[in-house]
Amino acid sequence: MTPDYDLLVVGGGVVGTLLTISLTRAGFKVLLIEKGDFTNRNLPSDRCFALSVSSCNLLEALGFKGLLQQYGNPIKGVVVTEGFAGEGARGEILEFKPHEIGKDSFGCMIRERDLLAALDERIKNEKLAQIISFTKVIDAAPDQRTMQVMTSDGESYHAQLMAICDGKQDKLGEDLGCNYVGKSYSQGALSCTIKHTKPNEGVAYQFFMPSGPIAFLPISNHSVSIVWTNTCSVIDRLSTIDDGTFLRELRPVFGTFLGDITLDSTRGSWPLELSLAEELVGGRFALLGDAARKIHPLAGQGLNLGLRDVAAFVEIIQTARQRGEDIGFADVLERYQQWRKFDSFAFVATTDFFNWIYSRSFPGYDLVRQLGTGVIAKIIPFKSYLIKEAAGLAGDIPVLMKSNQG
Ligand SMILES: Cc1cc2nc3c(=O)[nH]c(=O)nc-3n(C[C@H](O)[C@H](O)[C@H](O)COP(=O)(O)OP(=O)(O)OC[C@H]3O[C@@H](n4cnc5c(N)ncnc54)[C@H](O)[C@@H]3O)c2cc1C
């Protein structure tokens, strides 16, 4: 059977959509299948993403420089510290400046809706991309030469290779035999936009509270996107109380360092889980984005890792095609797995460790933790390693993510 497409992409979140654009630009014929409404995203909240330097490079390389200039807000500094409701920052402070890695910024903040709107507009014009909305992939079966997928509307499609970008929502990877390790954090995250009267100067703040971290991420000089982590029951309550009561609860946590605050968006909330696929590939398929791993949002890296999957995946299969290899062949997929597996594991472990270590508070332990933070602040090579990781500039960077300015 001759395959209808080179690739099937399952899931049209940011990862699946950007993957489809990257693949078609590299000359592959792609079918993207999305279970939701691709033409009207109708996002429930005003969530924003911190995009690393390398993710911004990828978007620029794919022709989205204008999007970043118009809607991106550069992150000019990062402050990480412990915080306590009503007391603000406390103890040792870790402060990161982009010039420490020779950059003007650590990347930028962007609203999910602006990013998706630009991707959706672009994909419509990609001649090699076909999109099917409101259709779920319900089953998939590889054979010697193709991957066949069955969809909820009773159709089936063939391609050489399937990229699973389903955010692990429908567990397609598991159905195909992938094992995941992980746990529920028994925590949720709430996100919304807050306006404030004093300028933030583009600095992102991460306060580690005993109940979970809270981040203030600069979306303009006078507004931040907050990501507030707490137990599921607290997050459920914070999501449903009225705006006035919410602000009264937020004020003592937020503190006054950015002046008076007002709510500037609806609130969205997400349950948090840690999950890591033990294998990133199988018979004629590969896992990308949250389908490959889900991490705690405290480091703002989940999407950045997914975009790195995209850039590495495209580079590998493009090279394979140039060499005349079958792109769905196990050896080709193994190269993707080798490239991305360690990164996946390292971030899952690091974010889990930070969440664990800072979500505890008792006397002797607090002192040890503060000493640890102080040591990190003073060991310059370790600190710059952490900054490079966060900027997406550590390790083997895919070509599409390297700076276009050289
Ligand atoms: C509060 C919060 C803040 C965050 N902030 C940041 C940040 O600042 N920076 C960062 O890098 N990351 C951040 N993240 C992580 C980031 O949101 C995720 O890593 C990213 O959105 C994952 O994208 P994805 O495309 O892989 O998955 P998803 O966004 O989950 O998309 C999956 C898509 O697949 C579709 N789908 C599912 N099953 C099927 C099926 N069977 N058939 C067809 N379609 C299907 C779904 O409808 C969906 O459109 C944050 C996460 C949270 C919760």
Jot down its keywords.
406 residues; alpha+beta; FAD/NAD(P)-binding domain; D-Amino Acid Oxidase, Chain A, domain 2; 9-stranded mixed β-sheet; 8-stranded mixed β-sheet; 20 strands; globular; binds flavin-adenine dinucleotide
| CA distance, first residue to last residue | 44 Å
Please give the number of β-strands: 20
Query: Can you count the helices?
Result: 11
CATH class category name of the largest domain: Alpha Beta
Largest sheet composition: 9 strands, mixed
Q: Report the uncertain regions.
A: none
Strand content: 25-35%
Q: Could you tell me the mean pLDDT?
A: 90
Helicity range: 25-40%
Note the overall shape. Answer: globular
Heterogens: flavin-adenine dinucleotide
- CATH-level-4 superfamily name of the largest domain: FAD/NAD(P)-binding domain
Summing up helix and strand content along with how strands pair, one would put the structural category as alpha+beta
Overall structural domain count: 2
Question: Can you tell me about this structure?
Answer:
The protein has 406 residues and is α+β, with helices and mostly antiparallel strands. The protein folds into two domains: 5-71 and 110-182 and 275-362, 3-Layer(bba) Sandwich (FAD/NAD(P)-binding domain), CATH 3.50.50.60; 74-109 and 186-271, D-Amino Acid Oxidase, subunit A, domain 2 (D-Amino Acid Oxidase, Chain A, domain 2, 2-Layer Sandwich), CATH 3.30.9. The protein contains eleven helices and 20 strands. It has helices at 14-25, 53-61, 65-71, 112-123, 172-175, 232-240, 243-254, 302-322, 330-358, 363-378, 380-390; strands spanning 5-10, 30-33, 48-51, 73-74, 77-84, 88-96, 108-111, 129-132, 137-142, 147-151, 156-164, 180-196, 203-209, 212-220, 223-231, 261-263, 268-277, 281-282, 285-287, 293-294. The strands form three sheets. Strands 5, 6, 12, 13, 14, 15, 16, 17 and 20 form a nine-stranded mixed β-sheet that branches. Helix 1 runs parallel beside helix 8 (302-322). It is globular. The termini are far apart. Bound molecules: flavin-adenine dinucleotide. Flavin-adenine dinucleotide binds at residues 10-16, 33-36, 47, 49-50, 136-137, 165-167, 169-170, 172, 189, 191, 227, 270, 289-290, 297, 300-304, 306.
